[in-house]
Amino acid sequence: MLLLTGTMTACVQDDDSSQQHVLSAAQVCDDVLSPTGRKALELVSGTERFTELTRRNEAGDPEGFSVALAAEKLRGKSGERADCTVYRADDESGHPQVSIEFEPRAIRPETLVGREQLSFDLGVHAYVNDNGGAYLYFACTTEGLQGKKSYVKASMFTVQGVAPDSAPEDRMAILNDVSRALAEQLGCADEAALPARVPEPVKG
Q1: How many angstroms separate the CA atoms of 74 and 81, rounded?
Q2: Pick from 83, 100, 125, 148: CA 20 to 30 A from residue 72's CA?
């Protein structure tokens, strides 16, 4: 599932693939993955070599994901997309391996989990599903053009599928690392209370 949102006039994909640099797991998503998150990305993707989507900003310069840009988007100060979209370097399909994005939410999410979901004791509500998705809601007050919002929803989609050697915890570890970095940038790390390591899935 690839989400296409945002203002295309302000932010256009850099289609010159010859200019894309091969990155390690430590270098993607603004260099915020912990050693556990890096290993998790490698397991989920089945590779140690990645590229990352960049777009051109209003000045025409290539611009990649940053937690600072994601924070501006949540505060309603930027019309640009701020998702972290990562590809396998050896994949020429044009489809990303993982895509992570954030959105402010005013209402506390429902915490009911179905059979196809595996829940984690993280933030307000966190789970992975059978479709390769991972979701993490955490408390973080932001105020933008649409008013004050009390929560942030973090979503990660494994567009190319999940490598067979990976576990659900791997997806949540990646999403938790990027969410922790964003909470720090927004000044709500204490409010979000996201741990450095993802706990075991909730049993039962």
Answers
A1: 10
A2: 125
Residue 144 Cα distances to 78, 109, 169, angstroms: 10, 20, 33
Q: Scanning the structure block, which residue is given the tokens 């909470």?
A: 183
Q: What is the amino acid identity at position 106?
A: A
Report how far residue 32's alpha carbon sits from residue 71's, in angstroms, rounded to the nearest whole number: 14
Q: Which pair of tokens denotes residue 12?
A: 């256009």
Pairing of strands 125-129, 50-52: unpaired
In this structure, the strands spanning 50-52 and 55-56 are: unpaired
Those residues whose C-beta lies under 8 Å from the C-beta of residue 22, and which sit 6 or more positions away, are 49, 50, 51, 89
Q: What is the pLDDT of residues 21-62, one digit of tens each?
A: 899 999 999 999 999 999 999 999 999 999 998 766 666 555
- The DSSP call for residue 50 is E
